[in-house]
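Session log. Operator J.P. requested a structure for one protein chain; no other inputs attached. Running the standard single-chain path with C-alpha cell output.
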Amino acid sequence: MTIPKPKPAAGSDAPTAAEKSWIPILADWKKSGLGPREFCRRRRLRESAFWHWKQEIPERERRRQDRRQGGSSTQALRILPVRVVQSPASRVPLEILVGDRTLRIPGDFDSGVLRKVLEVLEGHP
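Structure written below.
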C-alpha cells in the first residue's frame, strides 16, 4: 500500500513544516560522520522516514526551482532521433517519452486524438 505524500498548498512555494524539520536533521547527519542506521538509532528516528526525506527534499527543491524558472506547467519535450524501418502489415505501436513518463500508443491510433494529446503536453490547448 502506498501512503500519499503531503503536498504543499496549491501555489505555495514554501517548504512544508515537515521539510523544515527534516532539513536540519539531514544536515546534522551529513556532519555526524555516522551511517544512516546509527544516526537514526541515536536520534530515535524511523529509518524509513530518514530515507524518504533524504530523497524527497532535493526532489521538492528541484520542482520549486523548475517553477521559479517558469517550467511548472509546461514540461519540455525532447525530440529524439528515430530510425524508420519497414514494418509488417500490422501497425507498430508508438512510444513517446515525456519527462519521466512514457506514452504507449497502439499502432491503429487516431491522429486527431494524438494531436490533441501532444498539444496538451506542450501546453497549447
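Operator note: The chain has two domains: 17-68, 74-125.
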